[in-house]
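Case study.
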Amino acid sequence: MDFAATKALFDLPDGVIYLDGNSLGPLPRAAAARLQRTLAEEWGEMLITAWNRAGWMAQPRRLGARIARLIGAEPESVVLGDTLSIKIHQALAAALDLRPDRRKILSDTGNFPTDLYIAQGLIGALGRGHRLVTVPPEQVAAHIDEDTAVVMLTEVDYRTGRRHDMKAITAAAHAAGALTIWDLAHSAGAIEVDLAAAGADFAAGCTYKFLNGGPGAPAFIHVAPRHAEAVRPALSGWLGHAEPFAFEPDYRPGAGIERMRVGTPPVLQMAALEAALDIWDGVDMAALRARSVALSERFIAGVEAVAPALTLASPREPEARGSQVSFRFAEGYAAMQALIARGVIGDFRAPDIMRFGIAPLYIDESDIDTAIAAIGAVMDGREWERPEFRTRAAVT
Amino acid sequence: MDFAATKALFDLPDGVIYLDGNSLGPLPRAAAARLQRTLAEEWGEMLITAWNRAGWMAQPRRLGARIARLIGAEPESVVLGDTLSIKIHQALAAALDLRPDRRKILSDTGNFPTDLYIAQGLIGALGRGHRLVTVPPEQVAAHIDEDTAVVMLTEVDYRTGRRHDMKAITAAAHAAGALTIWDLAHSAGAIEVDLAAAGADFAAGCTYKFLNGGPGAPAFIHVAPRHAEAVRPALSGWLGHAEPFAFEPDYRPGAGIERMRVGTPPVLQMAALEAALDIWDGVDMAALRARSVALSERFIAGVEAVAPALTLASPREPEARGSQVSFRFAEGYAAMQALIARGVIGDFRAPDIMRFGIAPLYIDESDIDTAIAAIGAVMDGREWERPEFRTRAAVT
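After joint prediction, the assembly is written out as follows.
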């Protein structure tokens, strides 16, 4: 893998080291031309006929198949659409429907809040006595029991980068008759994922983080082929119908994963995402992972050498981490602002987490070394004490 | 209103008369530059900070307020996001929750199928014995009873353009203690809508038809302010949380309409939509409606003169129509293909409806006259009999 070549495919601002691609990936250089083509040649020229002539209608499946390769899923088992919150809702509603006699949804305290909120909203709407049980990440397996309908987890923790053992937890869930939903928000494009080998039942993820699909890029959902025909969609929109353009009065689910489509797909977002996936098509995930680990190890060693006040919040063992490195520091918010002022962009998660995404497609050793030096300078200069870095604004 | 000026703001292909803006509106000339700015100056340069610095996070409310004016809603009562199917689900789940002792969802046979499908999916998921009752459009008021939780209708029929009396039906629903959901897919940007005056409870619509927001542009939802704080969201995503960036473990609904947000909004689609709304900001809806009626009347008279085999499927009285005109013709599919080959783009809905959208922003008298002449030529030449026009493809 030639990662210098992939780096050249991104339009990164001068003087910026971007370690926040785990929140929003940067702009692929080809995205502007791709989007311009969609506007001028497709929307502008073909108008309504572009749904077929430009292939818009099939795009959620076509791009889904390209993402499937990155997450070890069968090509026909992934479709794009909506947002991750909606896709989690679909997966959870389907899983509960497949386990009608069980009432427990098991998750962990490291799950991203929207997954928990979606479960709470669904439980309230269903009104059938389901309960959401959240336990510390390391205790998940021990809490899977005969009442557990589904184990719903984010594989890689958004704060610490701690990674679950997808295969072991899935096996434990199956042994107890439970299903699994894996949120791959911080996995897709970040680490090697093999949904098929793990036997995962459902998965969902977003495409605007490590996949670089652009702000508001659509989410994806995976349903294991063994379940695909058994799923009864709760969000039964017309594009998940067996024949959307027959305009029948009654819903009939489409074949397999097609039924997880809901409404009209976001064509402009898909065009930008396509430009990003053109880069991913050439990426070997094992090579990417090896480089992510090497860069992460270099970053941890460097930061610990120059900034002993920062405490590693991520697991020290590479196998237990995703592709981000987090440190705890009581003044982390202001320290991160100081770092951003120096052109090194990471982000902060309360109460004290400084978070750095390591994306080998556009981050190299030199970037890591520059970031380490900037962290050292912020710490040496106690820059977090400066008033301009202490004002809090909403962060994402 | 200077409609010649608005027409110049759209990039329409040479030689095309576009009468399908009720399906997908055409490209505003300003969209390409607007999108380019979002890519280069916002996503590319600001990266993650654009969520605040470029105002992305607030955009669903800001654009919602601009749409609110077009549909007679309070500025703070509309928010953008997701697709119309999802927004209908949210409105329906909320309405059923507000009327827990009632089991009937009343709709009509003219509703767009996805609204009915969404109701069927929700009923199945809830499993509480709700039932969807669909009656002919003219019988809706007579079927509102004490068990009716919600009357869910599309104001303007997607096939015939027949328009409901929103105010009368809403009053009848309220008299029986029921709520209303108005699907404005074929109303927003097409006719004068006054949700507040009608006392509508919920409304939703899409922005890619008459509003010209682009393929896959986000939907909008309106909740009457009197209900907004009472709604318990079933799709409780993090951006509808009172403090999304506090990352709390438990969902707390945001203030008012904010709670109808779900996940990350589609920033690129919103940029294109903004370019379209820049045009709408200058439009007087009463003037638009008057022109729509004048153009529609001219079209009906002209078509009936040159093509007596076509039967008007839309109501003859302008007040009973939206901004489209439909004709029935047994060979309508092939006739529409022949018409498209002549550069007049309308569309076809089974079994026999030829559908023409009348969008005064970019359609003028000369376009109407050209379309009439083309229809006359297709009919005179029996062009629907040509084999090349009889092959069916999926249409949208």
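Observations recorded in class. The longest strand of chain A covers residues 148-154. Residues 57-280 of chain A form a domain with the Aspartate Aminotransferase; domain 2 fold (CATH 3.40.640.10). We will return to this complex in the next lecture.
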